[in-house]
Backbone:
């Protein structure tokens, strides 16, 4: 498989590994957005979170929890981001969680700044989405 993250896991591409569990691994991002940008990934190749087993998911997010505290010590705030699929901005089709140290003056804004405008939905559209997600 030609997946850069799978190659990091197998050791054929070097990385600054921070912590490893039986099912997950964390390392410094090779193209950081800020000092201390960390990636946390499952060792098994899955494109989306919902493709992972419950055990893999639990292990991944326990490591995210642990590493977030460490990343947070750099600047006091951490952006936790997951692009779950290509249309969501996922560049490597392997589940990965970004932990990005944030500060007031880093030029990045809140999540709403990623989009051109707020979506205006009718009450019936909101109800339709609500019912689809709830059931």
Residues:
């Amino acid at each position: 498989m030609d997946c850069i993250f799978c190659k990091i896991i197998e050791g054929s591409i070097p990385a600054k590994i921070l912590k490893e569990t039986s099912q997950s691994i964390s390392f410094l991002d090779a193209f950081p957005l800020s000092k201390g940008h960390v990636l946390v990934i499952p060792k098994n190749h899955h494109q989306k979170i919902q493709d992972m087993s419950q055990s893999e998911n639990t292990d991944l997010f326990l490591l995210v929890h642990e590493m977030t505290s460490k990343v947070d010590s750099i600047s006091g705030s951490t952006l936790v981001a997951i692009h779950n699929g290509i249309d969501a901005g996922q560049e490597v089709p392997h589940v990965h969680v970004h932990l990005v140290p944030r500060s007031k003056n880093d030029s990045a804004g809140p999540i709403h700044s990623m989009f051109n405008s707020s979506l205006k939905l009718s009450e019936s559209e909101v109800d339709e989405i609500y019912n689809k997600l709830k059931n």
In short: The mean pLDDT is 94. Residues 24 and 60 are 6 Å apart (CA to CA).
